[in-house]
């Protein structure tokens, strides 16, 4: 006669008793703080450590949206592995909860980012930081909620495992082999993946990017006036940076 595993019996875990509630919520809240802190560091470590190739797996290597998703994903995976020995005995659905919680973080970051871009058409650093914190916190709270539920059906467990496995594969490969899609494009250089020294030097000299940022020609006009070249008010319009040099040349010829 076999002894049934209570984790496979939902009746053994009535709602509110599956997992020691306060311990789970506290652990996941602490995990959110860890993920946010570690993600902040991972934004800079690739450059700080001399662009050491192995760090490219977990650290941001450029300013694309994809690389910023890694700042939530990998710290969340690390925390999930570290917390498992302590939380496993206190919860049900541990990896199912972690699978959904981790997967939802980059989804929310993308939803917030592209919604803001669609509505306002521009980048806002404070907004990005705020939504990063919200996405991480939401993922951790979802994870805590699922851990306290009775054991979930096998199909749900398989779905969570599949989503987590797919995310692990994607985040392991796409930094090194990025598809030519906007989400993988570096907003500074216009390139994809790990930037070369040439890309970085070009960006440092203001020539990076295939879609130049807009630059007010007011600044150019001030420079021309400083050199004794008269500038009409009509010349002070917002142009693409790529057209800025030609515009200056035209103004100089007119002068």
How do you describe this structure in short?
The protein is an all-alpha fold and 255 residues long.
Question: SSE layout and pairings?
Answer:
Elements: H1 21-42, H2 45-48, H3 65-87, H4 94-120, H5 125-147, H6 154-173, H7 197-204, E1 214-216, H8 217-226, E2 238-240, H9 241-254
Antiparallel strand pairs: 1-2
Helix pairs in contact: 1-3, 1-5, 3-4, 4-5, 4-6
Question: Any overview of this molecule?
Answer:
There is one protein chain. This protein is an all-alpha fold. It folds into 2 domains: 6-198, no CATH class; 212-254, no CATH class. It contains 9 helices and 2 strands; from the N terminus they run H-H-H-H-H-H-H-E-H-E-H. Helix 1 packs antiparallel against helix 3 (65-87), helix 3 runs antiparallel to helix 4 (94-120) and helix 4 (94-120) packs antiparallel against helix 5 (125-147). The chain is globular and about 55 Å long. The relative contact order is 0.12. Mean pLDDT is 80; it is low at 1-6, 10-19, 208-225 and 233-252.
- How many domains? The number is 2
Give average pLDDT, whole number. Answer: 80
Number of helices: 9
Number of strands: 2
Class derived from helix and strand content: mainly alpha
Radius of gyration: 25 Å
Please give the share of residues in helix.
Answer: 55-70%
Helix-strand pattern: HHHHHHHEHEH
User: What is the strand arrangement across the widest sheet?
Assistant: 1-2
Q: Judging from the principal axes of the Cα atoms, what is the shape? A: globular
Beta fraction of the residues?
A: under 5%
Low-confidence stretches: 1-6, 10-19, 208-225, 233-252
Report on the biggest sheet: 2 strands, antiparallel
- Taking the alpha carbons of the first and last residues, their distance comes to 99 Å
């Amino acid at each position: 006669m076999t002894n049934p595993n209570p984790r496979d019996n939902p009746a053994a875990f009535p709602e509110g008793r599956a997992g020691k509630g306060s311990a789970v919520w506290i652990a996941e809240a602490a995990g959110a703080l860890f993920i946010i802190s570690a993600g902040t560091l991972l934004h800079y470590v690739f450059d700080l450590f001399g662009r050491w190739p192995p760090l490219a797996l977990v650290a941001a290597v450029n300013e694309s949206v994809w690389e910023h998703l890694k700042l939530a994903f990998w710290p969340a995976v690390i925390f999930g592995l570290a917390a498992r020995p302590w939380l496993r005995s206190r919860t049900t659905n541990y990896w199912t909860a972690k699978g959904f919680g981790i997967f939802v973080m980059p989804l929310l970051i993308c939803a917030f980012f592209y919604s803001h871009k669609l509505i306002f058409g521009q980048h806002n650093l404070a907004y990005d930081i705020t939504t990063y914190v919200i996405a991480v916190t939401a993922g951790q709270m979802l994870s805590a909620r699922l851990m306290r539920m009775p054991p979930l059906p096998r199909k749900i467990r398989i779905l969570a495992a599949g989503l987590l496995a797919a995310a692990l594969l994607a985040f392991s490969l796409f930094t090194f082999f990025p598809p030519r899609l906007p989400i993988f494009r570096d907003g500074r250089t216009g390139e994809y993946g790990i930037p070369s020294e040439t890309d970085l030097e070009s960006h440092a000299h203001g020539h990076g990017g295939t879609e130049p940022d807009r630059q007010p020609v007011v600044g150019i006009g001030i420079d021309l006036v400083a050199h004794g070249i008269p500038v009409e008010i009509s010349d002070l319009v917002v142009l693409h940076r790529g057209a800025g040099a030609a515009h200056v040349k035209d103004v100089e010829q007119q002068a």
